[in-house]
Amino acid sequence: MSRQDRFLKACRKQDVDCTPIWLMRQAGRYLREYRDVRQSHSFLEMCKTPELAVEVTLQPIRRFDLDAAIIFSDILLPLECMGIGLEFSDGEGPVLHNPLRTAEDVERMRAIDPETDLSYVLKALEMARTELNGIVPLIGFAGAPFTLASYAIEGGGSRNYIETKKMMYTEPASFHLLMEKLTDMVIAYLNAQVRHGAQAVQVFDSWVGTLSSTDYETFVLPHMKRLLASLEPSAPHIHFALGVSHMLKLVGSAGADVVGIDWRTPLDEAWKKMGLKKAVQGNLDPALLFGSSQHLVASVHDILERAGNRNGHVFNLGHGIFPATPIDNVSLLIKSVHSGSARP
């Protein structure tokens, strides 16, 4: 079986020769070749220049025996197109200059056409797909509506998400309108990505773990169900929600083909909570890549044993790879996953 087949077959719960692996943020700062490109270009310039985005997308595929590539981009780019000022500050992360705080702010957000407003991402997908030439599949992605809403309301990252929850609790109609607009955008954007070369898509819900299960069911789940049901079915869709150990069953009910699991819940427990008919992705703690090789390998084998060579497991980290991660441990991780999961 080729690397081209392994990841997509696992997403569809089909037989594979070994467990496939890719890493969230695999195209990023832990690679020297990424830092070399970054010295000459801003982050947004790299995202908006297809040639640079493709180069960064391919860097980890050239270096490692990974089973999928993921396009280099950022989840916040569509918010800029919808009328929110976006800036990336070195060391401080994204800053959104005109955060949404009122019903009027939400109503002013414009609908976008991905074919024109985000054409540079779609062009990068086409170019990357050509450059990959069937070696591995290409993953597209977008932010989930709640995470995008949180960024848009807070104006950046947050510890407690007070402004987001304040809108939820005091102006629920405005919050649902915002979620509806963002859901429409993500559906159109991800389906456009599939048309332009993405063979699977992932929805990142990085901040949804700040909600209670009741609030998730009320304010988020209906929108996620509509989103996932509206995606092009030919490309498997992965739903990664961070910090949702307290509501895994609800997250699993949203309807994704594959559910990403963070490192906080053992893989077998998470899989059972969601139902074994669902494919799963995960879930090594990215900090384990800073430990000893012996501990890393033992941790990989523990996850593989919990998966039990069951069809439908894609190995990944429980969150994105850290910038200072040792390269040798990344290589060891990939080798350990493939060798430790080889089917007879």
What descriptive keywords fit this protein?
single chain; alpha/beta; 7-stranded parallel beta sheet; 344 residues; 16 helices
How would you describe this protein?
The chain has about 350 residues and is an alpha/beta fold. It has a single domain, classed as TIM Barrel (Alpha-Beta Barrel), CATH 3.20.20. About 50% of the residues lie in helices and about 10% in strands. The mean pLDDT is about 95.
**Given the structure, what is the number of helices?**
16
Let me know the largest β-sheet: 7 strands, parallel
> How far do the termini sit from each other?
13 Å
CATH topology: TIM Barrel
Number of strands: 9
> What CATH first level would be assigned?
Alpha Beta
Spans with pLDDT under 50 lasting ≥5 residues?
Answer: none
Short description:
The protein is 49% helix and 10% strand. With 344 residues, it is of the alpha/beta class. It has one domain (3-340): TIM Barrel.
SSE layout and pairing:
Blueprint: H1 3-11, H2 32-40, H3 43-48, H4 50-63, E1 69-70, H5 77-81, E2 86-89, E3 93-96, H6 103-108, H7 114-117, H8 119-132, E4 138-143, H9 145-154, H10 162-170, H11 172-195, E5 200-205, H12 213-229, E6 237-241, H13 248-252, E7 258-260, H14 267-274, E8 279-281, H15 293-307, E9 313-314, H16 327-340
Parallel strand pairs: 1-4, 4-5, 5-6, 6-7, 7-8, 8-9
Antiparallel strand pairs: 2-3
